[in-house]
Amino acid sequence: MKANALRDMSAEALSEKVRELKGELFNLRFRLATGQLENTMAISNVKRDIARCKTILRQRA
Q1: Which of 24, 36, 44, 48 is most buried (CB neighbours < 10 A)?
Q2: Sign (positive/negative) of CA torsion 27, 32, 37, 40?
Q3: In the CATH scheme, what is the code of domain 3-60?
Q4: Closest CA to 45 of 20, 19, 21, 14
Q5: How far is the C-alpha of 41 from the C-alpha of 35, rounded, in Å?
């Protein structure tokens, strides 16, 4: 997700997005452990998106 799109979101929406991304990261890690994950870069991409959201939330605080 692009940082510009995240900056347009409210603080509540960003917090919800972080929660959603953490759930997705959990599912990806679970699929990796069971051998069902084909694209391992998806884990890195989700981690980056979480970091982007948290950075924007921290800048606003």
Answers
A1: 24
A2: positive
A3: 1.10.287.310
A4: 21
A5: 14
